[in-house]
Specification:
By secondary structure, the chain is mainly α. It has 2 domains: 1-133, no CATH class; 158-244. The chain is 55% helix and 0% strand. α10 runs antiparallel to α11, α11 (158-185) packs parallel to α13 and α12 (189-212) packs antiparallel against α13 (218-238). The longest helix is centred in the last third of the chain and has 28 residues, at 158-185. The protein is globular, with a radius of gyration of 21 Å. The chain starts with 21 loop residues before the first helix and ends in a 7-residue tail after the last helix.
Length: 245
């Protein structure tokens, strides 16, 4: 029943974290076996659940309505094209909160494939229904290879390149975190401040890299990650640790 499919995908939104929500109040009492796509507890334990992004933010409906029919008005099965969580409409639904990611994604070939043929990836392909995870490098290569192969005629080298870039992202992020820890322990405020400025820029560049990943412009992502790595190295040098690298 469509009323029991309210919890399929969630998107980050403000959503009145502490305010009562009719969707939540009702669906938290339903048996887990009645959930469509994911259970209430899946949502509750997700980043979106913790942020207060309630069911209606993704599925529609009226959480203020007292009657079941009114509460579910505008909520449809994810198999129906009018549903906000229909496969090709998921980017727009997620993008209502994640606007920058949508801006990048909507300029990609993947988005073009999705809206023209229905065969391209969407947000759920990589992040799951509630953005509870990011694919591991190995999982990314496997997922990309479903289309990027000789049979589908998509560039077969892309999965390997994507795996390399995800490993690079993890390494750069780790390097920044290590340097942040060293900066926090630096005895001289002058050194901490100099390193802190470089680290702040490196963190901002990392955010740009994560957002631009959604464009699937791998060359651009690589250049952005290398810029962030350079910032971490400069911060390390500011601490007098250039010889450590």
């Amino acid at each position: 029943m469509i009323g029991l499919s309210l919890l399929l995908v969630a998107t980050l939104a403000g959503g009145g974290k502490g305010a009562p929500n009719g969707c939540v109040s009702c669906h938290e009492r339903l048996p887990a076996s009645t959930a469509g796509g994911h259970s209430f507890q899946d949502w509750r334990g997700s980043p979106h659940g913790r942020a207060g992004a309630t069911c209606d933010k993704c599925h529609g409906g009226d959480p203020a309505a007292a009657e079941r029919e009114a509460a579910h008005r505008g909520v449809y099965s994810s198999r129906e094209s009018r549903s906000r969580v229909y496969y090709t409409r998921i980017p727009a639904t997620c993008g209502s909160c994640h606007q920058q990611e949508l801006d990048f994604f909507s300029k990609s070939r993947h988005y073009t494939q999705l809206v023209t043929t229905g065969r391209g990836p969407n947000c759920v392909t990589c992040h799951g229904s509630m953005a509870i995870r990011v694919l591991s490098p190995g999982e990314m290569e496997t997922t990309c290879s479903a289309c990027h192969n000789a049979e589908r005629r998509a560039p077969a080298t892309a999965p390997v390149s994507a795996r390399y870039l995800l490993v690079l992202l993890q390494q750069v992020d780790f390097g920044i975190r290590v340097t942040e820890a060293l900066a926090a322990q630096a005895p001289q405020a002058r050194l901490r401040d100099a390193a802190g400025r470089e680290l702040q820029r490196a963190r901002a560049t990392m955010r740009s890299a994560r957002q631009s990943w959604h464009s699937f412009d791998l060359d651009r992502v690589e250049q952005t990650l290398l810029q962030a790595a350079g910032g971490a190295r400069r911060a390390d040098s500011a601490l007098g640790g250039g010889a450590r690298r």
